[in-house]
Amino acid sequence: MNLCFLIGEIIGEIQFDFILNGKNISVARFRLKVNENCEIIVKAYDKIADWCYQNLVKSDIVAIEGKLDSKMEVKINNIEHND
To answer: Are 67 and 74 in contact, with CB atoms under 8 Å apart?
Structure first.
């Protein structure tokens, strides 16, 4: 099982795109700084992507539950953010 939990600061702008392959799938990507020397690319799909794009901005602190893929990027399963 490949499950990871991360807490970090969003650095940079949230990129939002659509994958058009017969289904409209929304994708949000952003960089997460988890300590002084480590940055992780995280990505979310569909409803979670829409929520991220509407509610998160640069310098927000988030807690993420996700899966690490072969590109060393984390696919978000769940995200928490305190306003």
So the answer is: yes
Q: Where are the domains of the chain?
A: 4-81
CATH topology for the 4-81 domain: OB fold (Dihydrolipoamide Acetyltransferase, E2P) (2.40.50)
What's this model's pTM, rounded to 2 decimal places? 0.87
Average pLDDT over residues 69-81: 93
Distance, CA of 18 to chain centre: 15
Bridge-based pairing state of the strands 38-45 and 61-68: unpaired
Tell me how far apart the alpha carbons of residues 17 and 50 are, in angstroms, rounded to a whole number.
10
